[in-house]
Amino acid sequence: MPINRKINLAQTDEEIQNCYPVMVELRPHISADEFLTQVKRQMNESNFKLVYLNDEGVKAVGGFRVSEWLSGGKYLEIEDLAAKDGERSKGYGGTLFDWIVEYAKREKCEQIKLVSHVKRFAAHRFYL
């Protein structure tokens, strides 16, 4: 990974807002104001994490949470993973995905689950 690629969890309002231009490509129904409010609510209520890859600007974002089920133990669920339009096929999505997998290992998750709409064929190819 080139040295200028930095991956961080978004924690401040500014960091969350900086993720919006990439996330809106995946979730176009959410306005910028709604995005900030919803992300903060999900962080507080359901342990949602918003992570971003910065390489002279936000190039990819991911949304996930760690939870636990009686039936399967601790797991990490990836709800969102997107690379900025015009920046795809440059390794940003894969680098961010690998970081999330390592996060799951550090958290001692037994499984990683992926949420993806059945019509998102390009996304399915990425994960395979």
Please describe the structure with a list of short key phrases separated by commas or semicolons.
alpha+beta, Aminopeptidase, 40% helix, 30% strand, globular, disordered C terminus
> Mind telling me which CATH architecture this is?
3-Layer(aba) Sandwich
CATH homologous group name: Gcn5-related N-acetyltransferase (GNAT)
Major sheet description: 5 strands, mixed
Got a strand count?
Answer: 5
Determine Rg (CA atoms, Å). Answer: 14 Å
Coarse structural class = alpha+beta
Low-confidence regions: 123-128
Helix count from the secondary structure assignment: 4
Main CATH class: Alpha Beta
Please, how many domains?
1
Please render the helix and strand layout as text:
Blueprint: E1 6-9, H1 13-26, H2 32-46, E2 48-54, E3 58-69, E4 73-83, H3 92-106, E5 111-114, H4 121-127
Parallel strand pairs: 4-5
Antiparallel strand pairs: 1-2, 2-3, 3-4
Helix pairs in contact: 1-2
Describe the structure.
With 128 residues, the chain is an alpha+beta fold. The chain has one domain (6-127): Aminopeptidase, CATH 3.40.630.30. The protein has four helices and five strands. It has a five-stranded mixed sheet with strand order 1-2-3-4-5, with helices on both faces. The radius of gyration is 14 Å and the shape is globular.
